[in-house]
């Protein structure tokens, strides 16, 4: 059952060749469990080279765990976490941050595109300072945001400066971090620790891996005890090499960036093709690997009828996501169908 | 860096050919995320056929999560779980059952080989019945136990009868369930739901998979909400097919049993070879894929010096574990070294 | 240091004579601990008579615990609780519901006066039905609301009908339940279980007691294990009689209603006196024991300068609360000051 | 229903005159809520004078909460707490420490009388140092122990030295701290911070108060955020003055020591009277306000038949507790009955 007609999510894609090869290579013979193996060492080295710093890092199974464990390590149960209203931790993790932190509250900042601002953060911190409300302790930003916008380096720096001023720690949800790096064309270090990020969840799955995300502590002191935290939370893989080897090869080959560049290019290509079509509105600047369109119900129905898969949201928006394996030919076929439907509907 | 000299753990082994092939096959094209894919359906069917019942099942990342989530679903935070003193949930999961259940207490039954008895269970339930102590609500047994003994069907039935009488639910930690099935030569159904087990954690990793365990609810009513529980706990894989496809193929090919049979046979072979060696004592009946030897320090040191890897415990015990990939030739080499050392030391 | 100039909160008031007398009477001799005493029995009887039903009840220390334990008993960690935006559980309990439930999320319904509606509830339940978001399981309404409005019996019935239809349980935060009963002039049963409320937190402190709230389960099945839950949560008083005796006497003497009636009358009296004063706006209908005024900064400052204590909120609102011990003469003095300031400022 | 025949527990006693008077005096007029009142200030001053140090302190509702919140503040969920096997936190708090800490494990040291030793502590810390077991982070000792023995100053100092060496924090459960102070005749400071205790739960209820315990942080840095922690956990009293005023008066009048001295003297008196009676064995040195007797079933039954109330335990032990209100005449009557029964039974 092929799903080549799909643009629903970048996690519908399979394992990219580099990651699969790494798993196969790592499968030679026995290796110590729980990360005491050469592949995990090699992956850690690759991370440190890539980020140009002696960071501390941990491999966990998925993004929900990466985000939640990272946030739990930054705050107590009676503290709170400032996040954007459309942040994945707020909308799509089924209360995982609250669960892992034993009750920390997420304070939801209103945004248009998922980008927090220093002003929003400051308002939360200054708004309530009594013990009847959980005091803010951490800020989480998603880079790129869930609607595909990328914080500029200056925007991140402004947020981190506000965090430092107010005694908050800064977490970055980098589920699609590679896509953001490609968009800005900057060094990973510039976008993270040099910009003031304390901890990052770095997503491997959407970048082409089978399973696995990394939690990177740029401030090693914050990592104290995190190995125990992962173990207790059911996030320590016994055959760790199958999580870590793909990271090593993705970094060593540069595949993490080429895959992201490809996905971003697909999104831009799609956006360029549909721009100006009647009844089709591009809702957000296309800065990563997703395109959100405002479409009338007839068009949405028409695309579905032709077998295209994508997410729709209340109010008539449709999300098209592109992955390392997206094919330009399929995108063009999608565009052709959309154009035909739009033209017919507008006529 | 080969580790062919290792008998440290069955999770030092790599991915068995069947599981790897399944991952490669599942990697064709896109597939819906979060388990809404054909491989997951196929794996679920395979489970139901294998267990001859319409059980409810969930694929999670590792055994700590499988055990802890299962136990958390069986009790409230103010209740308790009866376990053997050497049970993995008590000794090797870093407080995960307490964490996932938000504080349920593990009541530790003294045992010699990890086997609980109806008497131990009854004593806990009758010992304290006031609200100042968490009331027992679940029992967990490990099959085979951490020292490699297998509960007989009658032993399980007696425990489950006690559980039903006392209002307790019965969980089986089946991290090495396949090995127990091979030892008893019974149907999986006989050892589980037909014997009164309510929920089981079924281990895939030690059976030859890269990652992944299954939680099987034989009583479907107990599974209510478990999908949300997994999601919140960071245990819902997005690219689920790479967890589920290996299960499907392992069952369809029978590899789950042949691998376990091989590992069991290796353990028996090793035990037979070392039996009667001077200064070497086999500590427990060899009923699964592990052999525990009591060895003097000189022998332990001698084996380590020759490059053999295995776990040692306080008091001079050494554990040798055998996996799907253990080679008889290497075992014989180990035996030869042990014989040489033992003979020399005894001389 | 007298605080007779205070209208800040009804929990600034001391212990009413009836409650104090009950504590003194309960202090004769020894009594079994943890509620196995005659006063607790007598209080439970009084509750059941008052509510005309064989409810199950528990005495805990404060309102935060009463609300949080009740809500935790209604939902799992991966479920959610629908509450109004200004509900005490959302704004003033420092994440206690999230903590006691181990991570249940509060879904915040936008309101003008703290009143939820069937439509708001329905929208939450129908809005998200996937496992990536915690499914709604409980609704909590505050009676009267934090701004002093009272749900009519029909409003409560409409909400509970919606809850039953959607499989939700209904909790009432009755921190000032007595005031609502006085306002509606109905029987306690009518406003609670007869209207479909499953569990209520009944506030004693704001009604004149020193310490203590009651959690009332109208559906006794929901109370299963709640005694253990209270114990584990540090909410089981050893000298229980000093929590329960005041409840007994408050009910037996009718003081719980006369005190509430007095506080309500004080609020109405104050509102009547200030109505129509220049620059003074009564923000909400006065249906319980609080009055919210919109006042210019000069008036707020002027009142503070004259020694009056009351809460102020961003945007120029001031809350005046009245308790069992509020004196009409002091209220009139306050009104006189306010009138003088308002007239001068308007001139 | 008088219970003058009772020696079941020191929490069966009522409120002592000093504590009751304090509550009555504190009941004059209004006072700010949540501890911002003059009585709480006065109580805090009394504590600091009594302990001769600028400690940080918090008033909570009961001992379970005091212990659990204190321990939760000392460790993470993936860490563990070393306690004696008969420690109240292990045997009588229904898993509260595990609940408040979100899963920290209690490591149970075998003892004969509830006294931990440096050796026991050291064995736990050195026994497991891998991440599969929760690392020890705190030690809790009960002073006096649950069987009524008192740690000497040197014993406490030896434990705290071990804690400091091993990086552990030291908590003292002082539910009957006053009794221990009277026994040793030392200054409170000597037994606590000067001996290396970091945090103490100080019991008021068993000393004669209606409700309330104090958590004292001798290391103020450890108290950071504890006010929020109490609030979130439902342990912040709104009418705080009724918790704090009794503390103030108990300290100012010295009643906390005279009541403890009286209870201790009653226990010694009872022990002296029953010593040497046939079939009666005093099980533990009487160093506080409890006496444990080993009695044959006939004597236990005989005493019960004559209306005496006391706790019994499996194996034929009986506990007699003495409180601030115990009367020598009643004790003598109990002794007379016991002597008559013992003499008759032995004959």
From TrEMBL, chains A, B, C, D:
Q: Which family does it belong to?
A: Belongs to the threonine aldolase family.
* The protein, known as: L-threonine aldolase
Q: Known PANTHER family for this protein? A: L-THREONINE ALDOLASE-RELATED, LOW SPECIFICITY L-THREONINE ALDOLASE
Q: Which Pfam family would be a valid example here?
A: Beta_elim_lyase
Q: Which GO terms describe its biological process?
A: L-threonine catabolic process
Q: Which UniProt keywords apply?
A: Lyase, Pyridoxal phosphate
This protein's cofactor list reads: pyridoxal 5'-phosphate
Which catalysed reactions does the entry list for this protein? L-threonine = acetaldehyde + glycine; L-allo-threonine = acetaldehyde + glycine
Per the database record, which ranges form the Aromatic amino acid beta-eliminating lyase/threonine aldolase domain?
6-293
Q: Which GO terms describe its molecular function?
A: threonine aldolase activity
| Source species | Gluconacetobacter aggeris
**Function per UniProt:** Catalyzes the cleavage of L-allo-threonine and L-threonine to glycine and acetaldehyde.
Q: Which domain of life is it from?
A: Bacteria
- How does the record describe its quaternary structure? Homotetramer.
EC number of the protein: 4.1.2.48
